[in-house]
Amino acid sequence: MATSSSIEFLLIESVIKIVVVMFVLLTAIAYLTWLERKVIGHIQARWGPYLVGPHGLLQPLADGLKFMFKEDIVPLDADRVVYWLAPFLAFLMAFLSIAVIPFGESFTLAGHTIALQITDLNVGLLFIFAVTSLGVYSVALAGWSSNSKYPLLGGLRSSAQMISYEISLSLGVIGVLMIAGTLSLREIVNQQAGLWAHAGVFSLFPRWNLLLQPVGFLVYFVAAIAETNRIPFDLPEGETELVAGFHTEYSSFKFAIFFMSEYANMVTVSCIATLLFFGGWLGPAFGPAWLRVLLPVFWFVLKVFCFLFFYIWVRGTLPRFRYDQLMAFGWKFLLPVGLANILATSAVVTWVHSR
Amino acid sequence: MEILFYIFAVLAVAAALSVVLQRTPVYSALSLIVVLASLAVLYLLLGAPFIAMVQVIVYAGAIMVLFVLVIMLLNAGHEGPSRGKGRFARWAGPPLLVAFLVEFVVLIWKQFGFTEVARAEAFDASPAAIGRLLFTGYVLPFEVTSILILVAVLGAVVLAKKHL
Fold first, then answer.
1. What is the ipTM of this complex?
2. Staple A299 to which of A52, A257, A283, B90, CB 3.0 to 4.6 Å?
């Protein structure tokens, strides 16, 4: 067993990492709402938030204060325990999956190697799927416990959508798993290091899994947009359809928690997409030791930011699917394409290994 | 490490009791989810991380979602107090249950003693090893299970569609 001083060190290190990651993540989510309103505003030829602080930069702060001071309404005959449990569960699952995401290389400090990751599970990817599966409960329970028609329907539709697209989400990732041979996220990124050599026109391109698994990436990303209930898959919470879906009857702080957990899910899914398909934190790293630690984190954040921008861009551009079209797309198109991708990938991997 | 086992074992038993004793069906389903999650932690403590995660993904994350959705849709109400039926069961039940549990514990004690705790030996529980076993030694049960699931899916489609 480890000595007591190294357990203490591990504990302090973990607590510091958790505090830093939570702080960064909460700030990122707050400013993601600002970014969304700005980008969608500009897509629609208007400015978005402009008055609260320079270019609306203090708008998230104003929104946060508003959420805290609003009246807290609980519907009559709502099931008390489950009504309060649902947003808590959503928040818990959204933030739990950040625990296994690596942000950069390891570095040594005072003789100890510190990895920029809260915990490096060797089944890290499965942990994220497990947490995503448990996130479906918050939606279903929120819809049911509100004791009202629109939330019930919205909750049922939303949870059915989430469990359908979870399958395609996992299938898109299995191709990467077959190539990498491991479930640990850090290992999968480390295998994407370097450039393709002897590949003609692609010689200077980095060894990202995107080139090995383009279909897998498309399946994963479309399923991820559906999983996080974003446009074009957000019928269960569209305003004109179901008032606000499963979180209709939630006011002030509880609604803010649902809101935050939806953005946290977006961030998690984008982080996984960069880790699995875009080489994570790999990028040109040069200079002194402290720069070598900060630059990978910068590349990682840049890639995640590109994904989040793409999410918001899609929201401002596409109309939403009707519910039967949505389900048909998930089961009749995305699932077979994911399965075909696995077949093709396994055939190629076996052929390459047998040579 | 032993303290973690005791915490989650007690949590699993308490949640299992809650499944049986709750009046609202939704609370029973939620307690069952707690039981499954505690079992997943116990699998982790035994050195099988893959099985732990698959337990959460499949059992707690898919099967129990189905249970919870069905309970919500069918609007199963609260269980009221039972009126006068089964008076014999109410008086004879708990003592017989305690006798059964004592017998159980005594049998296990005689067989294994109190010093034996399941320890995580150095066995290979990685996905690669499980996959290898599944496709070589246990391929027949694997294929039969796949056909069973296919039959279940077909049955669900047939029952749910109004006209094929």
1. 0.84
2. A283
According to the model, what pLDDT value does residue A259 have?
A: 86
Chain A CB contacts of B60 below 8 Å: 133-134
Q: Which member of B54, B69, B128 has the closest CB to residue A159? A: B69
Of the candidates A81, A140, A181, which has its C-beta nearest B65's C-beta? A140
Show the CA angle centred on residue A117, arms to residues A18 and A260, nearest 5°: 50
Cα separation, A258 vs A162, whole angstroms: 16
Nearest CA in chain A to B72: A144
- Closest partner residue to B50 (CB to CB) among A81, A123, A163 is A123
Give B-chain residues touching A127 at CB under 8 angstroms: 53
Residue A19 included in any domain? no
For residue A276, tell me if it sits in a domain.
Answer: yes
Per-residue pLDDT at A205 = 77
Residue B49 distance to chain A (closest CA, Å): 7
pLDDT in tens, B108-139: 888 876 665 666 566 777 788 888 888 898 99
Determine phi and psi for B162, rounding to 5 degrees. Answer: -80, -45
Tell me which residue of A87, A237, A270, A243 sits closest to A162, measured CA to CA.
A237
Binning pLDDT at 50, 70 and 90, where does residue A24 land?
A: very high
CA separation for the pair B13, A37 (Å, rounded)? 48
Continuous H helices in A59-184? 59-69, 80-96, 124-145, 149-180
Query: Within a domain: residue A175?
Result: yes
Give the number of domains in chain A.
Answer: 1
Q: Is the pLDDT at A74 greater than 90, yes or no?
A: no
Higher pLDDT, A30 or A253: A30
Instruction: State which residues form the domain around A251.
Output: 62-105+120-354
Q: Does residue A33 lie in a domain region?
A: no
Chain A hits for B72, CB-CB cut-off 8 Å, are 140, 144, 152, 156
pLDDT for A1: 46
Share of chain A above pLDDT 90, in %: 34
